[in-house]
Design a protein that fits this description.
Length: 138
Amino acid sequence: MSFTDVSSPVQKPVATGISLGVLKSKSSHTARMTFTATAQQEIFGGSIAGQHFSAQIGRGTDEGKLLLRQDERGGLVATASVKGSVFIRMKAWDLLPEKKVPAEPCELQDTRQDGLLFKLPSWTRPSRQGGKLDQAHG
């Protein structure tokens, strides 16, 4: 007789209170970053609803990272949602998949003077599993 190992089910990513998903409709393609009430309290010291932000996407060795800054003149606004959470909606950038992607946790990597550095889900990096290149070329 011959046997083969059976692997365990795929584990869901650990919840961090911060997540990123992609929304796709006929008229728009957006990314949505969500912060739970607890995450807002831990990171910002309270609710960020109504506050303005700006964001930059990492390229090259920083691919899969996002730098988020509180910025009075920023075009991104934290919008209140259910149970004290907020979301920041932004135009989807070129490295994101062209289809809707359910939200997955993001990791806060660093709190810097120039903003907050987040490590985004693996599908935000085109060369990773689930990324744009993986979807296009299998």
